[in-house]
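Example record for the data management plan.
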Amino acid sequence: MVETLNLISGGGVVILNLIPFILRKPNLLFLTAIVSFIILFLVAQFG
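Corresponding structural encoding:
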């Protein structure tokens, strides 16, 4: 269960961080980095 949650959240973080490069909007990089950090923090706390 924990491994599945880590795999899903890790894949989501990778995809989330690729969005600014795909859309060619570098100003979104900081926002997606913050969201990724929050996701990883929550998974570490509750997973």
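Summary line stored alongside the record: The chain has a mean pLDDT of 86.
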